[in-house]
């Protein structure tokens, strides 16, 4: 039988934070690069004014459901090439979150020609997928 000695020292260990590592709520991959992280409201407004269809993921780094949705959003960004995908950290860009009426995370907003046309609140991959299917079908 195997017994651990000094288990109290193992249980008492804490993970040390990594200095200089930027926390991201989605995986680093070629696909993830298709989802642009918004750094300023000015740049975002400039970008979406040029996009025919834009999909915006309002998230928080501490939000478990937001993290659970990240792989789905990455996959959708790979599938729907005619839609521009953005991620907005609600804690960093509170004014932008307020402007779009974000009250819960995650919130997903579809913007067509600069106007909000649809919104999904909550971690519901099927609802998001259906939203994207309808939006791209109407574009064809």
TrEMBL record:
Matching entries from PROSITE patterns are given as: THIOREDOXIN_1 (PS00194), THIOREDOXIN_2 (PS51352)
Limits of the Thioredoxin domain = 17-138
Mind listing the UniProt keywords for this protein, alphabetically? Disulfide bond
Recorded GO molecular functions are: protein-disulfide reductase activity
KW Iron-sulfur (keyword) present = no
Q: Which domain of life is it from?
A: Eukaryota
User: Know the name of this protein?
Assistant: DEBR0S1_31032g1_1
The species this protein was found in: Dekkera bruxellensis (Brettanomyces custersii)
Q: What is the lineage of its organism?
A: Eukaryota, Fungi, Dikarya, Ascomycota, Saccharomycotina
Gene symbol here is TRX3
